[in-house]
Amino acid sequence: GWVHHSSSLSSSFSTAWLVVRAIQIFLVQIGMLLLEIGSISPKNTKAMIIKNIGNSSISAICFYLLGYGFSFGVDGDDFVGWGGFATKGELFSNATGGISYNGATYAHFIYYFCVLNLVPTIVSGSLSERTHVVAYFVVTFFISIFITPVVMHWAWSHKGWASYHSRYLMDTGALDFAGSCVVHVSGGIMALVGAYLVGPRNGRFIGERVNVRMPRQNVTYAALGAFFLWAGFYALNMGTIQNFDGEGVNALGKIAINTTICATGSAIVVSLLTLYKEKHIEPYSVVNGICTGLAGSSAGCATMTTEGALITGLLCGAVYFLLSCMLCSSGIDDVTDVAPIHLGGGMVGTILSAFFTTQSFYKIAVLDSGVGTPCGAFYACEGLGWRLFVANLIFLIAVSAWSLVAGIALFLPLRIMSLLRVDKITEDAGLDFISGADVELKRFN
Amino acid sequence: GWVHHSSSLSSSFSTAWLVVRAIQIFLVQIGMLLLEIGSISPKNTKAMIIKNIGNSSISAICFYLLGYGFSFGVDGDDFVGWGGFATKGELFSNATGGISYNGATYAHFIYYFCVLNLVPTIVSGSLSERTHVVAYFVVTFFISIFITPVVMHWAWSHKGWASYHSRYLMDTGALDFAGSCVVHVSGGIMALVGAYLVGPRNGRFIGERVNVRMPRQNVTYAALGAFFLWAGFYALNMGTIQNFDGEGVNALGKIAINTTICATGSAIVVSLLTLYKEKHIEPYSVVNGICTGLAGSSAGCATMTTEGALITGLLCGAVYFLLSCMLCSSGIDDVTDVAPIHLGGGMVGTILSAFFTTQSFYKIAVLDSGVGTPCGAFYACEGLGWRLFVANLIFLIAVSAWSLVAGIALFLPLRIMSLLRVDKITEDAGLDFISGADVELKRFN
Amino acid sequence: GWVHHSSSLSSSFSTAWLVVRAIQIFLVQIGMLLLEIGSISPKNTKAMIIKNIGNSSISAICFYLLGYGFSFGVDGDDFVGWGGFATKGELFSNATGGISYNGATYAHFIYYFCVLNLVPTIVSGSLSERTHVVAYFVVTFFISIFITPVVMHWAWSHKGWASYHSRYLMDTGALDFAGSCVVHVSGGIMALVGAYLVGPRNGRFIGERVNVRMPRQNVTYAALGAFFLWAGFYALNMGTIQNFDGEGVNALGKIAINTTICATGSAIVVSLLTLYKEKHIEPYSVVNGICTGLAGSSAGCATMTTEGALITGLLCGAVYFLLSCMLCSSGIDDVTDVAPIHLGGGMVGTILSAFFTTQSFYKIAVLDSGVGTPCGAFYACEGLGWRLFVANLIFLIAVSAWSLVAGIALFLPLRIMSLLRVDKITEDAGLDFISGADVELKRFN
Question: Is domain C15-430 classified as CATH 1.10.3430.10?
């Protein structure tokens, strides 16, 4: 009948929407590559490229074989999923509407692969220019196969203990639609642990922690990177709307506006702070300001008011600037400011989304909200006012703890086995030195 | 009932369409950044990046707070809109279909932000390498908050005096679907005024206007920029179709073809002309030829015949070449040939769209065409033949006058207050000199 | 009635889908430009840019005027199409649903233009740094106007002898949804013929074919190129689903997964093989591994199992590595490894898709499959088991023969007329030498 036909078109559209947003998130990978290459010395460019292509390749195979099953497999429990490994099993074969497999699950897979794939890229950003390529790949392997899938299960599966589907936690579940906490806080903490355990680059700090600015090869690459990240984050944030049957689509314009306002607000604050401190606007910092605002926009882009997004952006910028200054005097060498950007922005986003979310926006963005729609602490709603804040806080602490333990469990054994860091000669000569036998034009890398 | 359900899906789709096209227009910003950085000396790269990120940031906040209200606020009159400031008010809260806010208006907002955001980027392109960053930001502020919103109101709001919705002007309204006149002519004129008032770069002209070619750092960036612009213009031009309820979607393929043919036709003409004049094909000129064809395609891409688009493209190329030669001997230093590209292409597009539009294409592209569908002067239509031409001519003159006055009102006070141009030492050392204290690898900027 | 309305929305969506995928394929052009520029000496950069913009421009005009008619014109026969030239005739004007032209045909046109446009770009990639620009443009002209349109007609028109619509060949037709054979094998063979006839670059081989690595200016460009290619191939492969009326959309997620797994599998194999042979992972090779996997994914992305895609990818990587090594000792100078990538990947994809296709996936992806849905040789299906393999093998041989003859017919006369190659002085000085009179910063090209 017509119901079926119309539903089927709407569900076709939902599937297409999710896949297209997924592949647009690919722009974030391009942005990350540009940001990272722009921020390092030319002598390590090739190693960086191998690392980034390798990361995506290993992630893809790992998430295909096992990761997705640990995230969204329906036979799991509160803590971890089970089933649907290698795109097999009920989840994928359980056909909808007379066809032989479930196209919506395949779309769901590719979207969450593109989200998951950001985590190893974030983590490796802090480790550039002195870390062994084998270490990168081991870390990527474990992140993609288990560490991040578990966190995704907590937040986004139907059974996860912090999921807004299960609504187990505080009756609301945690609010983290596009990954401020799942992706950015988690990645930022592992990056920080890694940067600490791998140690600073030779020459980065002198004696009593005197801070030396290391060569950064191309500010244009970095700026382009920020723009591609920006373009990709629209897709990431809008991908939180996954169903065209209902009202969710009404939130799309709002998501795009909130993302824009949050990113630009952050950039403006960072510009003013660097102008105040260094007497000129520092482009690498402004670029990072954009990125911090984007990381902060993900949790609540669909449910926040726009004035809330503006305040989130302004705070993201300030937190970035503060953390970046603190890092410089901490003796930790985080090459592309991963922790200030992703941990800083992610924390601000996770917390503030629990303040600036309105009940009516939440209702539109989350289709299965059921009874008792949650809201942020700044907007009253049937006595649920502070629940979302508590839920997000608990989730933030849990994810931080998990990521801290995972980071130590990943990097410490590698360090003990001396697989974490290249030797001093290789580092000084550049990681690309081993491939230096060819006649490549060195000055153009 | 079914009517409602089906309509709601179609309207969901329209909303998603507009938002996705909007964020794809972001590629134009990336293209502009690459074009501009590729066309300047490396010593001014950082200033350019700060300028471009700053432009987008300021534009976003301004358009959010006030600009959109002046463009599309429903309480306005023929000249300027009023209402909907900061995404508040009836326009945004007036819910459709039982939800608490109007998602379509949010989508509309983000689309027109992405269009508006092109104007300050166009204007600043002519001023590179010697203009003070404060001047850029002041100019961007006023353009985004009032100058361009007003022109958008004239052409695209339901009440504007030249709007094809109101059909007040000549009973047809002006035909400028994607902004050949609103964006490109207007931006081009302000850029020209700015370039004239800021004066040429040191060393650009010698004595009796002997023309010196200034260093341009990277032709690959420029070429990539043109390709991204090209990709983004597909979105810009296809965004003229904003409603999937009717027949408009049938025009999409035609729009893409016309855009392609217009851009490539222009590139071929410019190639042949530079080959004839300089005995080799000049890549920067070919790149600009593409851009000119794109600027010219916007007005009539949805309503022109494809042979019309081809002729428009050929003429765009010729006009670009002519204006670019004229500029060289005029003593005005327009760094990235903004005026030949945007003013030239925009004028050609605005005029020729009034010749090559057919009535049947117009009917498909414009849903509310009502009685007496207009047509171009080359195709007879119920006695309306030349009306569109007269309407477009009047609109072109009005926009030009407005932009000329605005340009003078923007740049003259800045010049008088000595805020327009950096001092000679800074210019010669490079605008990035102030940030030269770091150990950045200068040769890789 | 509702049937009409609902159908019309679905058909609107199909049109929009195809156009948007088409313009996303544009990213492949950007990727190709970056790959090529990254792999050559800086002294030939401008010539490369002129070549690539020129290719697209000439292709667009040729396909508009004649090419599309030879591909999909309905008055043709098994071998070549006829009609619909310059977007005129029944195909375009035959209106659907009361409007004055057939929007779906325009969408079809732009999609296949974007596919066709890849072929001259592939062919010219092998010829860089010593070929005359006139030769490029002559080759592009004939490829876009006739050579590739004919192959597209064979495989993808309703009448073509190898089409899966006509099902004339072996009762199944050849399976090449997104062009592994039509685009990549065909382009790869013409590129190989061209590279052989134009001869190696000066200094590329010494005496007894000692292999000299030539300067490659920028590995970052090459890596970025691969990423953009990757992003664009999602669109290319997903564009095989052209209709939202039926079940095809269910295949989208699967296509994206298969594309990802095939590309990354190939990259991993190439990484391991270069690590084994050269004792380090060679980034240019890994980049090419990605591209080979993408070329191999196109034929069967919609119909293969994901384990089939993984095996296809692994084999793509191995074949790339083998062919690349063979080329080095063959005396043929293929600048960007076009033949190993496109011919190698395309052949693997064309053959293996005939093994790993399942009947149920085929049914979903191909709407007009009618009776006796084909399947791959590894999955039994009503006695049709090996037919698809035979059909694909015949098609592969036919396309290879056609491309070989076309390649000779294109390049041999150019060589005889001495239009193929620039003189030795120009080659050594760089093709950009002719434009060397300006004051461009040479070291930044």
Answer: yes
